[in-house]
Structure formats: structure tokens, C-alpha cells
Amino acid sequence: MKRNAICTSSIKLKHAEDHVRQKERRPGLKSAAGPSGGRRADDRGTRPAKPAPGLEKVREPASVPGAIDRPLMARTGERPAERVPVILESLGAGDFHLIDSGNGEKLEQYGPYRIVRPEGQALWQPSLPKQVWEKVDAVFTGDTDEEGTGRWRFPKEALGETWPLNLLGVDFYGRFTSFRHVGVFPEQIVHWTWMKQQVEAAGRPLKVLNLFGYTGVASLVAAAAGAEVTHVDASKKAIGWARENQALSRLEKAPIRWICEDAMKFILREERRGNSYDIILTDPPKFGRGPNGEVWHLFEHLPLMLDICREILSPKAVGLVLTAYSIRASFYSIHELMRETMRGAGGAVESGELVIREAGLDGKAPGRALSTSLFSRWVPK
């Protein structure tokens, strides 16, 4: 088994000696068009509205078959080489870093605000004294389950709903949502940094597909680096937020298609049309329910989603990136699935875990690693 270690200034890949831990899942959402398009729980029960100018709202013809009517491809050839286990680690970037964690909570810095949120993986005791944890700007209280609602408490003074942030040179809005999220998932910094490097080094405009794209930070990072981006999310609210981020980052003229649609239906149509992408990011929920009772289960539907994603990778593809949260499995589950999906494609599959390293009050004092998610990434070499 080949082990891999790569280091950059703030991102490290380390060997993992044990099976990965699981993380509480980000909330699943109702899909605007089907079970695979859901994204965030604060959009539950919303109905698709008339899209804003520049937003592609796709109406699927009745004759288009559902995802279950498309069989898995029979793959032949050698499986790609493997690099496992790999830990992708971040100390933070831009306006974010993890200060401390413990007692089922995490203390984070998001721009000017110091925030406390629930974190089920933090089984240990905090490193910093109690008074540090008490001198914060916002605390999420209420249901600690990621699919449960709660409210924010502001110990110092009432804060506005949004505030500006910057990661990897891209400006966007943080937002205090009722589901404890703030509009960005910083564990993804390592994937976004990798993507940014690939786009900048390609020597040609790469086409990037961002499935379950949420508030569009990854899409904006890709576009700022020079990519042509297609951003797909079933939540009109999330895409509206993403377009606000686009304006804040002064990327209104960047080549980004904002598509409000079920992710599975979108990639099925792209496959039929023969469209392809050089990089595909996919971050599906563990579970989602559509407005008409359709159900998405990651273990049941992920094989087909990856299979279709392979079919829409370009001949000169740079990578296919999968992130999975809160599933009761080792990373080997998605690792071996990715290798089977990419049979005959060559390259390598590297899989493991995304972690965020505590960085202390000043963002420069490495502490414990907080597990966040599983990942698997195919690259051509």
C-alpha cells in the first residue's frame, strides 16, 4: 500500500493510522426537483420560485427518465493506483481559524467575530480557560443535532445577520443561520486550494462543475482562478446567497452558470448531451427528501451519481472530488467505490479524512486535530 505525504504552507497531508471518525452530517434539505438536489436544512419546505435574472431554472421534460432508470456502467480495466490513508489538514485560511475545541463544542474565529458552536467530535476538554470561551461574540444554542433548529445568543451586543469574510482571496458573506451554519464549511479549504492550484497551472480555461454548491464559495474560488464554472444547487435561497457573494467579490462578469435544479437530474442531462467537465466537486448529503416524497440515501444512490460523474469528465480531466459527512463507514467505503468507478481511467485515487487543526487565539499555535469528514479524490496522475 502506497502512503502519501504532501506539505504546503498551511495545508498538510499526513498518514492516518486508524479508521476515520465520523462527523455529524450537515443538514439534508428538501430538493427543489428531486431527492438528490437537497442541500441545507434551513431551506426545508420552500417551493421553487421564479429565478432571478441570470439564474438558470431548468424544467425537466416529462419524458426524461428518473435516475433509477439509468443502469450502472460495466467498468473494465485496472483500478487506479491508491494513496491511502491520507489526512488533508488545514490550520485555517483568510478570515477563519479554529481557536479551540472540547466538551462537545468548538471555538472559531470568523473575521471579526469569535463564535461557539456545537461539535460532537470534540470529546476532550478545552485547552483554553473558561474565561476565553466566555468572551465571544456569538453562541449557537438549542438543538445540537445538525438537522435541528436553534438560535444564536450574542453575549456582547446584537449582531447583524450577515458580515463580510474572505477566504483564498474571495469575498463572501457569513450569515447566522437557524441551523448553526455560517455559510462556509472551512474544512473544504484544502480541496479549494488544490482546485485553485490546478486551474492556475492548467494553461487553459478549465471547466469546473460544483454539485450541491451551497453558497458558492468554491465556485467563486474557481472562477477567480480562471475557470469556467457551473454551480448546481436545488435551493433557490442558497443560490441567491451565492449570487450576493459573487457581487461582493466583484466577480459579476466571471463565467459562472448558476443552476437551480436537482443535482442528479442535471448530470443525467449533461451525460445525454455529451457535455463534460475537467474538475467535478460533489458534496452530497447523507439523506435528503424531495417535495413529493422522493428520498435520497447516500449509500443507495452514490454509486450511480459517481458513475454519471465519470461519464461527464473530459478526456483531459484534472480530478473528481467526493466529500461525505456523518456516514457510519470507514473512508475505505468511498475509496473502493471511487476506484471501481474509475476502472480503466488510470491515475490514482487518494482517500482519507479532512481535519482542521486548532490554531489558538493568534491562529499560529497548532493544537489538536478536529475530524470533519471523509473524502475520496481521483486524479489522472
UniProtKB/TrEMBL annotation:
Residues 14-27 have a biased composition (Basic and acidic residues). The keyword Magnesium does not apply. It comes from the Bacteria. GO terms for biological process: methylation. InterPro entries: Glyco_hydro_b, SAM-dep_methyl-trfase, SAM-dependent_MTases_sf. Residues 161-291 form the S-adenosylmethionine-dependent methyltransferase domain. GO terms for molecular function: methyltransferase activity. Transmembrane segments: none annotated. Keywords: Methyltransferase, S-adenosyl-L-methionine, Transferase. Residues 1-11 have a biased composition (Polar residues). Pfam families: Methyltrans_SAM. Its EC number is 2.1.1.-. The keyword Mitochondrion does not apply. Residues 1-76 are annotated as: Disordered. This is SAM-dependent methyltransferase. It comes from Rhizobium favelukesii.
